[in-house]
Amino acid sequence: MAGVRPGSAVGALSTHRPVLVGLLGADPLPHRAHPLHSTQRSYAEVNCYTDVLIELLHARGEEPLAAMGAALRVDFEGDQWTFLKPMPEDLERMFALDIHEMQPYRPIPWQALEQIAEGRMLIVELDSWYLPDASPSYRREHLKSSVAIESIDPDGERMRYFHGTGLYELEGEDYRGVFRLGPTAAGDVLPPYTELVRFDRGRALRGEALRAAARERLGEHLSRRPDSNPFLRYGQQLESDLERLLAGDEATYHAYAFATVRMAGSAFEVAGTHVEWVLGPAAAAAAAALAQVVEGCKALSFRLARRRAFDPRPAVSVMAEAWEEAMGQLDGELP
Prior knowledge:
Strand content: 5-15%
Number of strands: 7
Helix content: 40-55%
């Protein structure tokens, strides 16, 4: 999808269907996910928000890897790991992308339609219950998830949206459900958190200018990494949590694993790919250490899934050492 022209309209899927008013002229069928979402990776998805930005930038012909330096700041927050998001200043500096909260005081579909007509886009938190691509949550559980509305037809009740690793379409009952429309919709539900994405804040950087900006920001992110080893702190918390986790049900385990080992593993896998893209061969040692962190997170998640008592200290110790090695190697490469 690289090179699609912003502002072009999406045509009807057939001569008998209403026209979708779209921003990028994107179509789900030919869309190919960015390599950050390759099924060959340990974690093919990062999180709902970052995944949306990866595919949105990719569809515009940009390299989202450049804005992923914030992965080095990921920390253990006490009961979970940092929810990785590219920093707004990185997105604006590198891609002239301005993202800020907006007030959804009118029906979201019509606000989305008007903003698309102005060359903008909305990122909205919607209910995965009604998102057909959101397996296994679709029609099974209510979970908030961020989508970017690429095209919408309020009269025909259709929407195309970036979500997860791709570009998808929904219509009919799912459309009405996701926007809480119709006589059966509850009237006491808060409006969703909504952000406006503007593309008119300047020109995106390309080529070596983009890599140079990413390198500069990488040094700044590195200098703001956690003051102490986050895996040591996580290990201490896990030891105290383990008995409760083993006594809990499967849903408790999955919620815990997503907020901890999966969140950390996916973020540090992005970090490894980012430093390789920015630094090239000079990043080999740091990237290898970050890969150890990722493998450690995967292995620990499998151990936790078995629901049997074990000593987590050896596994966490390996990850802690790998984190120290990665940070030390990067300190040696960056001023």
